[in-house]
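Quick log. Single chain, no ligands specified.
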Amino acid sequence: MSDGSSPTYNSAADGSTVGIQAETVHNSNVYFVHPDASPLEKYEVGVRFLEDGVPSRARDMISDAIAHGHESAEVRFHWVLAMLSARAYHDLSTEELQRLHHASGLVRNYAEDEWRDALRVAFELLAMFSTADGETERVRDRLRALSPRPRAGIVRHFDLVLTGGLKDALWAEHRERAEAARLGDGRVKRVWAYFEPDPIGPRAMPPRPSTAASAQAALPLRAGMFVVGAALLWVLALLADPVSAVLQLLMALGAGLTAAHFGRSWWYEEHELKGRNGEPTIPHAREPDSTGDGFTHRVRHAFETCFSSRAPCGLTSQEWLGHTIQIRSGLAAEIAALYRESRVSVDRIDWLIRHLAEDARDRHDSGALFDHGYRNLTSVMTKALCVIALIVLGITTLALLGTVAASAGGAHLPMAALAVAGAFWSGRGAACLWLEVRGEERRLAEETQEYQERLAARQNAYQKWKSLLDAARPSETEMETWLTCDKSLFVDEALRHYQLTWRDLITHTILVTPARPYKRGRVKGGPWRYSRYSFRLFLVTQDGVREISTEFNFADAKRAGEQRSNYRFDALSSVQVTERERVGYDLELVLTNGPARNIRVKDAETHQLAPDDDVREIAEINLNAAGFIHTFRLLEGIAADGKGWIERNNPNNLPSFHSAD
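-> predicted structure:
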C-alpha cells in the first residue's frame, strides 16, 4: 500500500460540509504486468480490468496482446466488449469505428466455439438499430442461447448501445439478477474491510545496549587493589597470630560472599527498577515534547480514543483515561518513536493501538496493570541478611586489625591501618563496579525477554488482524459487481417513477461521484472506490432531459436525499469542466432558468500517488470509472446543439456492423 502521511486535502464550495475522508491504496498484483509479460498474460490482465470496471485500460492491454499475436474468438470478443463498455457510438473515434468494421470481417476465421457465437451475436447487436421487431426477437433469442458468461458480458458492457426494444426484453431478467446479487457474498459484513489500510508489521522497542563497558574496564584495577590490600592485612595478621588470622579470614570471606549474594538483588531493585517505575513496558522510550509533531499528536489521539472505548467494567471512560494517563503516555511515546516515518499513516497501526488498549484492560481485570513483571522484589529477610553480613565483615576486619596491633608491640599497626583503608576504598569501588556490571547483564537479559514477549504478542495480534482483513476484504470484481447492481436498480426505479421504457429513451448516462463524508480505497492500478457515492442519472427523451440524483451508502446500498429535475434541451446552455491540481475535477451545468450547478466529479489525489504512478493514467481511469467522459460529451453536445444533437446522433444514421461469415 502506498500510505501517505500527508494530511488529506479537503475543499468544499460555500455552504457545503466536508466530513471524514480516509483513504488507502492496497498493494496488489491483480493489475501488475511485468515488462516481459507474454501476450497471454497481458490479455488476462486486460480481462480483469474489464471485469473490474476499467475499460480504458482493458482496451490498451487486450489490443497490445492482439498486436503481439495472441488472437482468438475469445480474445476478440473481450476486445469488442472493452471498445463499447461505458461508451455510446458518438464516443467512438473514426479510427475505432474502422477497427470495429475490420474486426467484424474476422469472425469467419475463428474456430467454431461458444466465443465465436458470442462474437457473432455481438456484431449482430451492433447492426440492429433499424431492424424490425421480428429480427430483434431472433437476435434476442440468440443472445439468450449463449452461455452465461458471454451473455452477461454483452448485457453489461453494451449498455449504451443496445436498442430500446432489445433492452426492454432483457431488462426484467437483468433487474432480477441485480436484485439477487446486490447484497450477495456478504456485502454488508465485508465492505468495511476494503477501506481498511494494509497494516504495517509489528515492532517493539528493543532493549537498551549495555552501558557497563566503562565499569567492566575499571573493575580489574579496583579488584586488584582490593586483593593487594586485603592480602597485606591478612599476612600481617598471620605473622602475629596464625590461628586467629585463619579463622578471621574465613569469617571475612563468608561474610563478604553472603553480602554479595544477598546485596545484588537489593542493589538492582534500588538502582534499576526504581529508575523504570511507571514506564516498565518501554524502559527507554522518551516522552516527546509537549507540543509534538503531527504524527505524535495523531498517535496520542488514537490511544485516547481506543482506551476510552475499552474501559474495564466498573469504570467510566473518563475514569479509565485518568487511571492510565501514565501508561498511555509511555505507550504513545514508544509507538511514535517506532513508526515515525515519512510515509506511515496512523491508520496502519490502529490494530496495534487497539491491541495495546485491550492488553491494558485485560491486565487491569487480572490485577496486574501496574505489576510490570518484576515480582521477585527483595524481601525484608534478604535485606536483613545482607546488612548482618556487612556488619560481620566490618567486625572481622577490625578483629584482623586488632590481631596485628597485639603483636610486636604494634610495630606493624600503621601498615595494617593503611592496608585496611586501601582495601576499604578499593573494595567499595570494586563492589559498585561489579554490581553495575551484573545489574546491566540482568537488565539486558530481562529487557530482551520482555522485548521478545512483547514482539510475539504483537505479532500474534497482527496476524489475527491481517487474517481477518484478508478473509473479509472484497475483491475488485465483487466491488464492481455490487456497484453495477446499485446503478442498475437505481436506473430501474427511475424508469418506473417516470413510467418510461427503454424504447422511450434516446440515450442515458449515469455519473458516479464521491459523496462526503467518505472513505476511499483502491488497488494499485485500479480506480478509487468510495464508502459513499452520489449517483446522478440523466435520461434523454424526445421531450428533454430528466435528471435524478441520490446518495448511496455503499456498505448496505441504502440511499437518501433523492432529487429530481427536468429541463428542455434548450434550457441547458453550457457545460464546463474545471480541473484544479489540488482540488480535483468539477463539472458545471449552466441552465437558462436557474443558477449554475457544480458537481465534484473527482477529488484531488496527488498526495496519495506513489513515485511510479502515472498521474494522467490514474486520472483517466477514475474519470472513466465515474462515467464522466460519456456524461460530459452527452451534456456538452446537448448544450451546444439542442435537438440537433439528437438528429446527428440518431442510431439509424450510424454505420452497421456485420459478421462476414
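Residues 213-278+375-471 form one domain.
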